[in-house]
UniProtKB/TrEMBL annotation:
Occurrences of domain Carbohydrate kinase FGGY N-terminal (ranges): 133-288
Assigned keywords, A-Z: ATP-binding, Carbohydrate metabolism, Kinase, Nucleotide-binding, Transferase, Xylose metabolism
Source organism superkingdom: Eukaryota
Transmembrane intervals: none
Cellular component aspect of the GO annotation: cytosol
Name of the protein described by the UniProt record: Xylulose kinase
GO-annotated biological processes: D-xylose metabolic process; xylulose metabolic process
Gene: LOC108071447
């Protein structure tokens, strides 16, 4: 590595549900600075709860895109306040919460292309930059009608799975675009371009609308995951003239351009600093984890997700198969559960006064198996299974005596309530993963990331329910690391002289930095027996709710 390369840095962003986070890595891929902006507390004027606004109709959730723009102004200033030297940034990439869509106005694109470095981003890319100011995000589940219409138009849900890797899901971008086309036809017609949250992030740095990468693009019910191109059948089933609004999908290994002059003048980025295609937060987390195929990756962010690498695309009738974010001829499996951290937070509030330490003490004061008390908390309509409601059962495998008033009656103590929640969530995740064919054996290891992965008592329950050791990464969250690692790797590939075979992504990253893993919990010896039985009972409970 020459002296110039030694001074190079890589910048990664994660625009997830509740926060915008940034991380700066040096040429050895070590963290030198990081910053974050929490939407609820740092930008209270947008009145989000958990990073989202509930919409006027059932199952609707949205965000005002200008909140994300404002967050970018703040996070960059916070990096500068830490004396992060942005003049050394050789490449940027990012990850975004999946499925959310932004609808650029003509004026917005012009503003993006002509940013004045003396002004904040949010004073230039304001409400008028978007034709839809209540932009739908992944939590929105209001498009059942559009899902049915799209699947019917292409020949049924199995054809949708075969083509796009998922049957139509309400939060996926295609059905969301169709709803906007149907309900706000003028806005759709006025939308010059449509971005995902990830490609929107890239667009801010590029000073132009950036292409959608095909890994995050696999979360739209629009992309043919084998051809890695938009499926004409799906586009036609969604909305007219959609291809021109989406632009050409690109590889996540693509450089989409250099940073715009705005960032050069305002933050001293080098003029040749490259913008690498941004991708979805779950693909990015997988990229940040650097693990082998016997590992199951668990992200405990706002949603709980399970991720796994896949050589070939399996036809999953539930769950999602996405194009892999780094091994671009491979795939990844993704299971997403809506009722994750926000439900844990709510129970923490009611049972432990919002104090995680107390929550953990209560959780640990109860035995594995919780005296046979179990609960399922689907506060919002769950994704798999599609079910809503709360159910508590006692040890007799019968509905709790007072269960007639579902979701109202509680167990006799906060500690039983808390263990029932966490065990119930993890049994649910394990049952769905098994249904999708994930094999849990002696070799299985788990790597956890996301906000709740700091909680060792929750991780211990995961180790016990999944009967596998649980690890965490010590540096930072995987999605954020994945964004910065990809920035470094794609630049490395781009700079190789012609004819040189590049290292694989994983070999390249590991040649610069070891994967800093920490084993946090091992399963107890009696776990397999206890939870095998509870898994069967959980299935009965889920069936009762569905
Ligand atoms: N000590 C903790 N124990 C359990 N959950 C926690 C703890 N600290 C934070 N969290 C959870 O982490 C969630 C945020 O995770 P994060 O990965 O930052 O979200 P996202 O990436 O979706 O914006 C919060 O909803 C919060 O409930
Ligand atoms: O909908 C999905 C994945 O399909 C969600 O996982 C979003 O990508 C949001 O991620 P987090 O903010 O919860 O990390």
């Amino acid at each position: 590595m020459g002296p110039q390369q030694l001074k190079r840095a890589f910048l990664g962003f994660d625009l997830s549900t509740q926060k915008l986070k940034a991380i700066l890595l040096n040429s050895c891929l070590e963290v030198v600075a990081s910053a974050e902006v929490k939407f609820d507390s740092d930008l209270p004027e947008f009145r989000t709860v958990g990073g989202a606004n509930p919409g006027p109709n059932k199952n609707e959730f949205f965000v005002q895109p200008v909140m994300w723009v404002k967050a970018m102004d703040i996070v960059l200033d916070r990096l500068v306040m830490q004396e992060a030297d942005l003049s050394t940034v050789a490449a940027i990439s990012g990850s975004g919460q999946q499925h959310g869509s932004l609808y650029w106005s003509k004026h917005g694109i012009a503003a993006l292309e002509n940013l004045d470095p003396d002004k904040f981003l949010h004073s230039q890319i304001d409400d008028s930059a978007f034709v839809v100011n209540r932009t739908p995000i992944w939590m929105d589940a209001s498009t059942t009608k559009q899902c049915v219409e799209m699947e019917t138009a292409i020949g049924g849900h199995l054809d949708m799975v075969e083509l796009t890797g998922s049957k139509c899901y309400e939060r996926f971008t295609g059905p969301q675009i169709r709803k906007i086309y149907q309900q706000r036809t003028h806005a759709y017609e006025d939308a010059q371009r449509i971005s995902l949250v990830s490609s929107f992030l890239a667009s801010l740095f590029l000073g132009a609308v950036a292409p959608i990468d095909f890994s995050d693009g696999s979360g739209m019910n629009l992309l043919d995951i084998r051809q890695k191109n938009w499926s004409k059948a799906c586009l036609n089933a969604c909305a007219p003239d959609l291809e021109e609004r989406l632009g050409q999908a690109v590889s996540p290994n693509a450089i989409v351009g250099s940073v715009s002059e705005y960032f050069v003048k305002r933050f001293s980025f080098p003029a040749d600093c490259k913008v690498v295609a941004c991708t979805g937060d779950n693909p990015s987390a997988l990229a940040g984890m650097l693990v082998d195929s016997n590992w199951l990756s668990i992200s405990l962010g706002t949603s709980d997700t399970l991720m796994m690498s896949m050589k070939e695309p399996l036809n999953w009738e539930e769950g999602h198969v996405l194009c892999h974010p780094t091994e671009t001829d491979e795939y990844m499996g993704l299971l997403c559960f809506r009722n994750g951290s926000l439900v844990r937070e709510e129970v923490n509030k009611t049972e432990a006064g919002g104090d995680w330490q107390k929550f953990n003490e209560l959780l640990e004061s109860t035995p594995r198996g919780n005296f046979g008390n179990m609960a399922v908390h689907f506060n919002e309509m769950e994704i798999i299974p599609k079910a809503k409601g709360t159910l508590r059962w006692n040890k007799d495998s019968m509905p709790h005596p007072a269960d007639a008033a579902k979701g109202v009656i509680k167990f006799s103590s906060p500690e039983i309530e808390i263990r029932a929640l966490i065990e119930g969530q993890m049994l649910h995740h394990r049952a769905v993963a098994e249904d999708m064919g994930f094999h849990f054996g002696n070799e299985t290891q788990i790597l956890a990331t996301g906000g709740a992965s700091v909680n060792k008592s929750i991780l211990q329950t995961i180790a016990d329910v999944f009967n596998a050791p649980v690890h965490i990464q010590t540096e930072s969250e995987a999605a954020l690391m994945g964004a910065a690692f990809r920035a470094a790797y794609v630049l490395y590939r781009n700079e190789l002289s012609e004819g040189t075979t590049p290292l694989s992504y994983k070999d390249y990253v590991l040649s610069l930095t070891p994967n800093k893993l920490q084993l946090v919990c091992e399963p107890h010896k009696d776990s397999a027996d206890i939870y095998a039985h509870m898994l069967l009972r959980y299935r009965d409970m889920a069936r009762t709710l569905a």
